[in-house]
Amino acid sequence: MSYVSATLRRLVTQRAGEQCEYCRFPQTASLFAFEMEHIIAEKHDGITEAENLALSCPYCNRFKGTDLGSLDPETQQLTPFFNPRLQEWSDHFRLDGGTIIPLTPEGRVTAKILQFNLPERILEREQLITSGEYPPPHPQTTDQ
Ligand SMILES: [Zn+2]
Prior knowledge:
HNH endonuclease domain protein; NA-targeting_endonuclease; HNH_nuc; globular; 5 helices; endonuclease activity; two-stranded antiparallel sheet; zinc ion binding; alpha+beta; binds zinc ion
């Protein structure tokens, strides 16, 4: 794993609005530090630059690993994951309470492999919905 400078880490964190760019869990509500996730893993020649990094909660980062996509459970087509640098979250997912409902093939493979809807994760989101912390506001989309 390449070194990510403090400056780059700060940029990625602020750009993400301090929320996981996959499941939108707010870092402020997590006991764990969020991670610099390579959208295209270094194994696949992904670079350690802002355009290939996303802020990720430990769950999403762990389940995604070095994968780039999976087979869409509906069509069995090889499908890339949702890319937070190129795509809008709300085009690919919607919330139903604490459950994240995928809307597209990219959404389906992402929700499945990153295991968005494990019971304990839904429960955590439901608790944050109750306290008004989820979903957090969308970050300003001023991507450079
Ligand atoms: Zn996440």
